[in-house]
Every structure is written in structure tokens, then in C-alpha cells.
Amino acid sequence: MDHYVTSGRESVSIEEFQHRSRKVASGLAEVGVTEGDSVALLLRNDIAFLEATFGTNLLGAYPVPVNWHFKQTEIQYILDNCKARVLVAHSDLIPKLPIPLPKHIQIILVPTPPEIQQSYNLTPEQCAPTKGQTVWDHWRDQFTPWNKPPAAERGSMIYTSGTTGFPKGVRRAPASLDSQQAMMERLQIGFGIQAGAKAIMTGPLYHSAPNAYARAIIGLEGDLILMPRFDALEFLTQVEKYSITHAHMVPTMFVRLLDLSEVIRRNANLESLESIVHGAAPCPPDIKRRMIDWFGPIINEYYGSTEAGLITYVTSAEWIEKEGTVGRPLPETLVRIYGEHNQLVNHGEIGDIFVNLVASSGFTYHDDDKKRVEIERDGLITNGDRGYLDEDNYLFLCDRAADMVISGGVNIYPAEIEAIMINLEGVRDCAVFGIPDAEYGEALVAAVEPQPNSTLTEESIRNFIRENMAGYKVPKFVTFHDHLPREDSGKLFKRRLREMYLKE
């Protein structure tokens, strides 16, 4: 039976997809991409995204997905930092590119397809390449397929937001064949997938988990249906149309599904579904219970990070018994909890979560080895999360990494927003933090201490941030304070601010 990658009206067999990817590899080699180089992808969910990813990997180079919500300065930083040799971009996203682009970057444009145009209310004029530009299909098809042995797998170089400054690229070392096989087996367990799965991609491919999920489905020669963006009703339609068996989701999508009318939910055909896996953000227990009641005991969960990969996994049945857990460590995975004095703590005691790197050749932060060293202890690494293990070795999360906020499955670091806000005239001091949100898991709050006689407003602050950062980093709420509470050391009492806000 043939299996396909499908996006809108385009459906490509896995065999043809691999053929195209080998052509891409030849094309990239022709323009000078070699092992260890970077190829930037400023693309929405499209088959071209995956062709470029697999073609780049064949050369032992790094595909670098770029969050297309980013502003020009953010995109420019990533292009400069990863030293991209080639940039593959959807036509409608060209206005987001910094001007001028470095001359050494080869730009290849992908005409924005109709399903993306429709989902994002784009005009045909916005989505068509102009005369003289290099167009993806024409460029790719002029090359013969790459026929050399594939280079050692490196995966995608995903940029994660840092607690300060710009994001850091997670750069993996080349993986052996044994390591690649072990990693695939791990993904099958943690994502709950298997060969021949019919999966639907609901989240953006520039995020690490959806990216890994999509690559795993193709690697297992399953069927992959790409949604341009998540829509609850369309998701149910696609599940029935394609007899979907597997999906990767975030809690925000659960909320939107549950918001559909009772009639729609009752009439939804979910018979084909075998496993829905979710991660990336805390899921309110009542939301998860309602999803299990509706979909059945197929709502499974993982916990992981861009750096460490998948760490734990929990089924619906286990979660019902251990409500709130993110699961037990995957095979060969070591999870240790360290207390404030760097000692290992007992079951039930909260501390910093450290994990070993399994089936991995290791990683560093691109051009920032120092940051990589800072997160390691006893051969294990941390992303700053805190939690505890119970007596049955089930992991429970308590605090997210440092001050990190996860909104709609997206990691947001307040320090990055604060660094922008402090440059706004009239802002004397500021703090950004997260609060619980029924739809997105968490929402951003900006607490502002204005200068005397300032004319700042909530809207002027939001507009300033929106002009300088991606829209999802704009706080949902803005509050004004005579003085922001700080420790003697100068550190903000963010916990106190959060508590003050929640009491109001």
C-alpha cells in the first residue's frame, strides 16, 4: 500500500517525496551547501518544508526552521547566527525578511499554496513570486537525485527562546545508524506512533515537537496530512475524511474542540483514532478529563524538551490513576531531582529536574558552548523545570523553566519582552509573567512602573512590543504600579506580583 504526504490538494507518495528530497539535496550541494552548513526555512506547513528538511539532512547539513511570526530583527538574528547558506521561504513571507539580506544567502521562493492563502486570508498577489526570482519546484526539478550515501543524521537545528537575549540554536552532533534507530524507537513510544500510521499535523512545523513528529511519521512510511493551521471543525472533518489514526496536539486545541457545539461533538466520527498525544504545555485536568470522556482513553501525554528530546510518557489510564502526572521516564531514561543544595531529594520532594541524554550523540548551543555547560550536572542536563517523582517514579511538574511561560504550546521567556519594554519612553521598570488561562494554558501579564508624568497606556505598550517582537509575545494584560517589588539584591518578586494579580 502506498503512503502519502498531503497538503491541501497536493498529495505526494512517500516514494515520490523521497525522490524530490534527493533532488533537493543535489540542488543544495550545487549552490555550495556542505556537511555542517545551515539551510533556513521560513515556511508555513507545506510539503516543501519537509522536502527541504529531508534534502538538507541527506547532506549532513542542518535545516533551521524559523518561526514566521518573528519580526525582522528576530529573523535577522537567526539567519546571521546560524550562518545560513540558503533560505527557503513562502512568497507571502518575503516582507518579513531583513533588508538587505547578506549576499551569500541564496533565496528560493515557494509559491504560497491555496490552502494557506485561504487559512490566512492572503491574496494571490501576496503569494506569487515575482519575475526573476528562483522558484522552488522549477529549481528542484532541474537536478538529478542525490545518489551518494546519506551523511550522518543531525536533525533540525531548533532555536529555543533563552531566559535572556535572543534564542539559542540546539545543534546536535552527527548520529550513528544505531543512534538513529534507537531514537526512532524512542519516538515511537513517546509519540505513540507506529509504521503505517495515518497522522494529521495540527501544529506548526517550526516547533521542535511537531517537527520531530512529522519527520518520524515519514520515516516510518506512514501517511501525513498537513493542516495549514489548526481549526477545530476542520480537524474533525479531516479525521473522518482520511481515517486518521494519530495526531499530535497541544491543550489549546483541546479547548477549541470542546468549545464546539454539543451537536457537532456528538456527531463527530472518531472511530479511526487510536492515539492523540499532547505535550508542550500544561493541560488543565478538567480539560483532559473532558477530552478522555469524549475521545475515549486515547489521550496520551509526553514531557520533553528541545535539548533532551522525549523524557516521559503517560497513557490515559495511568493519568486517571495519577492525575496531573506527565508520566514515567521512557526506557533507559534517567530522571533525577536535585534540591537547593545540589543534593538528590527523596520521592515527593520538589527540586530541579535533570535528565540524561538517551540515544543521542549529544548537542551544544550553536556558538554558545558556555550556556551548554551551565545546564549540565553529573552528566545530566536541565531545562530549568522543577517537579518531583512519586514513589512509583511518576513525574509531576511544579514550576516551568525559570520564568518561562507556555502559551498555546509556545515557549515565551519574559526577560526577552522586558528587554524590549524597558526601551519604551516612560517605562521606569517592568516585569512580565504568566497567569493561568482557560484557552491558552497561560497568558502574559506586563506589570509596568511608569516614569513620573508618563502618558503611557495599555495600548501604547502593546503596540510598542508588537512593533518589535512577534505578536504572540504581546501581553494579554497590562497593569500599572507605583513601585514594583524587588529584593535587596535587585531581583523582582515576580511571585508576589503574580499573587497580587490573581487576588484582584
Summarize the structure.
This protein has 504 residues and is an alpha/beta fold.
Structure explained in plain terms:
There is one protein chain. The protein is α/β, with parallel strands linked by helices. The chain has three domains: 12-151, Rossmann fold (3-Layer(aba) Sandwich), CATH 3.40.50; 174-402, Rossmann fold (3-Layer(aba) Sandwich), CATH 3.40.50.12780; 405-503, ANL, C-terminal domain (GMP Synthetase, Chain A, domain 3), CATH 3.30.300.30. Helix content is 32%, strand content 25%. The strands form seven sheets. A nine-stranded mixed sheet has the order 2-1-10-9-11-12-13-14-15, sandwiched between helices. A four-stranded parallel sheet has the order 4-3-5-6. Strands 16-17-21-22 form a four-stranded antiparallel sheet, with no helix packed on it. Helix 1 (14-30) crosses helix 2, helix 7 (177-191) crosses helix 8 and helix 10 packs across helix 12. The protein starts with a strand and ends with a helix.
